[in-house]
Design goal:
Layout lengths: L1 H12 L1 H17 L1 E6 L4 E6 L4 E6 L1 H6 L2 H30 L17
Antiparallel strand pairs: 1-2, 2-3
Helix pairs in contact: 2-4
C-alpha cells in the first residue's frame, strides 16, 4: 500500500509529463490498426487503437454461400477479436506511462475497464 502511495506521489510530481505522454499515446492509438478475424480468416475486422471500427472484409465464398446468420456471427466474432487486441495494446501503453500503477478510471480514457 505504501509503495503505491510513493508511486502515486511520483505520478503527481510528473503530472505535466504524464499528460504529454497520454496525449502522445492517444495519437499513436488513433493511428494504430488491429485486425481480428473469425471463420479461419473468412471475416476480418480492423479497428484503430481506440477500438473504433475501420473496416470489415468478407471472403467472397462466404458471401456467395448466402448464410446470413453465419456471416453475422463471424462478423461479431471478428470485431470482438479486433477490439480485444486494441484494448490489450492500449492497456499495455497505459501501464508503461503509469509505471504499472493501476489507477481507477484510467482505462475509461481508452474505452476499456479501469
Amino acid at each position: 500500500m505504501l509503495g503505491n502511495l510513493g508511486q502515486l506521489a511520483g505520478l503527481l510530481k510528473n503530472a505535466g509529463q504524464i499528460k504529454q505522454n497520454m496525449e502522445a499515446m492517444q495519437e499513436r492509438l488513433a493511428a494504430a490498426r488491429f485486425t481480428g478475424e473469425a471463420g479461419a480468416g473468412q471475416v476480418r475486422a480492423t479497428v484503430d487503437g481506440r477500438g473504433d471500427l475501420v473496416s470489415i472484409k468478407l471472403d467472397a465464398a462466404l458471401v456467395q454461400a448466402g448464410d446470413v446468420e453465419i456471416i453475422e456471427d463471424l462478423t461479431c466474432a471478428a470485431v470482438r477479436d479486433a477490439v480485444g487486441r486494441s484494448r490489450a495494446a492500449a492497456q499495455k501503453e497505459l501501464q508503461e506511462i503509469t509505471g504499472g500503477l493501476g489507477l481507477p478510471g484510467m482505462g475509461d480514457l481508452l474505452g476499456g475497464p479501469g
